[in-house]
Amino acid sequence: MKDSDEIESFEDDPVELPIDGTLDLHAFRPRDVKRLVSDYLEACREKGILQVRIVHGKGTGTLRRTVHAALEKHPDVVSFRLGGAGGGEWGATIVELRKGEIE
């Protein structure tokens, strides 16, 4: 069995995500969400993906509020809304990114 230092360092290793327009936050720590969302949106824009679905779950709404706060401050976000029927309802957020060149 690993000691706690080894476990912690394993948790801090980068995770490679597919850049396909859907980000599921269930496997991530809440403290990593703001940066993860920002980085993922940047990667999607670089690939020309301008509509992104972020799955935050329904739960208590804390993670959804964190995601929405990050989206409100992100310069490349044109708009966002809850997923609606067929899009995850209030357990997911659909984000529209601005077109244009990546700076």
Low-confidence stretches: 1-10
- Give the overall average pLDDT: 84
Mass-distribution shape: globular
Number of helices: 3
Q: Classify the secondary structure makeup into a structural class.
A: alpha+beta
Percentage of β-strand residues: 15-25%
Termini distance?
A: 46 Å
Radius of gyration: 15 Å
Instruction: Please count the beta strands (DSSP E, at least 2 residues each).
Output: 4
The ordered string of helix (H) and strand (E) elements is HEHEHEE
Strand order, sheet with most strands:
1-2-4-3
Major sheet attributes: 4 strands, mixed
Helix content: 25-40%
Structural account:
With 103 residues, the chain is an alpha+beta fold. It is 33% helix and 19% strand. It has 3 helices and 4 strands. It has helices at 4-11, 33-46, 62-73; strands at 22-24, 51-55, 77-82, 92-97. It has a 4-stranded mixed sheet with strand order 1-2-4-3, covered by helices on one side. β1, α2 and β2 form a beta-alpha-beta unit. α2 packs across α3. The protein is globular. It starts with a helix and ends in a 6-residue tail after the last strand. Residues 1-10 have low confidence and may be disordered.
